[in-house]
Amino acid sequence: MAGGGVAGATTALALRRIGAEVTVYEAYADPAGPVGSFLSLAANGLKGLRALGCLDAVQQAGFDVARQRLWADTGKLLGEAPRGRPEKEPLHSVTLERGRLVETLRTRAAAHGARFVTGERLTGATRDGGGIRAGFESGHTARADLLVGADGIWSATRRVLDPAAPEPAYAGFYSVSGVSRGVDVEPGVFNMAFGRRGAFVYLAAPGGEVWWSAQVASATPPGPYEAGLGELRDLYRHEETPSALLRAATSVGRPTLMHALATVPVWHDDRIVLAGDAWHPVGAGQGASMAIEDAVVLARCLAGTGDTSTAQPATLATALAAYGQARRDRVARMLKAGDDNRDAKALGPIARRLRNLIMPVVFPFAYERATAWLYDYEPRLGGRPE
Fold first, then answer.
1. Can you give the pLDDT at residue 8?
2. Pairing of the two strands 23-26 and 77-82
3. Within the chain, what is the greatest distance between any pair of CA atoms?
4. Taking 50 as the threshold, does the pLDDT of residue 83 lie above it?
5. Which of 47-51, 179-183, 189-193, 284-288 has the lowest mean pLDDT?
6. CA 74, 79, 85, 89 torsion-angle sign
7. Cα–Cα distance between 245 and 207 in angstroms, integer?
8. Which ranges of the chain does DSSP label H, i.e. alpha helix?
9. What would the DSSP string read from start to end of 193-256?
10. Per-residue pLDDT for 84 more than 50?
């Protein structure tokens, strides 16, 4: 497997749960290191973790966030709903640092027998008899029955699978995350403010901290050390709570460019398959949850091949085709939702005024119906959740 982040660690665990031998090759020395900031897991992702037997461990690594509130640039409350779940769903959304999630998943996968090799970046793969041989930057090669590309939006596996595959493009947004203290924010609530220059999300974390992320709409991407605290304070000077949090910031990360990926036409053949952001960077707070879904569904499909250590090409091809069929429509729908979510953060002044008028009326009646398809889904390894 290429990639040891959220998708890779979860897939490693899922494949070990069905008895497959798994070696994960990760480009970074520490895939659980300070890459990214915080993320949220919605009910569908948490159900996938339950199927893999690691829900409790992930919940303990983060904290529950039961509600979400959406705010206008004027400070007007636009809507409130359960966070990442239907109203009657007892599983609350969990927020945690990305590194903690990767560390937890990797520890659990290793405990089940998965092997992790760090500092190895995939450069190519070729057919080798009845299997596939992967090559790495160091010159090392490894042979397997199946290569899983869980190596993120810049996936090398995607290019191996299809040299004409699309490449990521800057999506017109960048994000800067940070931590503040001394600002009163209600615990257990995920807040998103639709500002004049993008969105601003924030929530109370344990220990008196407030975690926040500014998602700035900008036609021109900033440099790696640009978009500092001074610029953010200017961009969000009209939004009361974001402005207060930026004034009280105790730490600020570097800007992260947000990229979009055109539809990936080929996501598997009979020996290579993609998972997570390598073929669907969905956004809308669902990246980790969708990667978890991929892992569970892929393992379930492969479990039908019998002895996973000696699977024949036709059997693998059938299993991977079943995985693609099971995921295609749901992923396509999520990609569309992600695009809509991104567009909603970059409205002009007239569209913002219309939203501020209409959304408080429509949101209470439309939200649960519009998201039921997403949150009610339960990825399973077998006939029932474990």
1. 97
2. unpaired
3. 64
4. yes
5. 284-288
6. positive
7. 16
8. 6-17, 43-51, 55-61, 98-111, 156-161, 229-235, 240-247, 287-303, 313-344, 349-375
9. EEETTEEEEEEE-GGGEEEEEEEEE-SSPPPTT-S-HHHHHHHTTTSHHHHHHHHTEEEE---E
10. yes
This model's pTM is above 0.85: yes
Confidence band (pLDDT; 50, 70, 90) for 384? very low
Which phi and psi angles does 131 have, rounded to 5°?
-140, -155
Which pLDDT score is estimated for 340? 85
- Cβ pair 217, 173 in contact under 8 A: yes
Query: Cβ(23)–Cβ(239) under 8 Å?
Result: no
- The stretch 340-362 carries a mean pLDDT of 89
Pairing of strands 272-274, 147-149: parallel
**The residue to which tokens 């407030």 are assigned:** 210
Burial 7-39 (b: 16+ CB within 10 A, else e): bbbbbbbbbbbbebebebbbbeeebbeeebbbb
Q: Coil, strand, or helix at residue 289? A: helix
Higher local confidence (pLDDT), 342 or 49: 49
Split at pLDDT 50, 70, 90, the class of 226 is: low
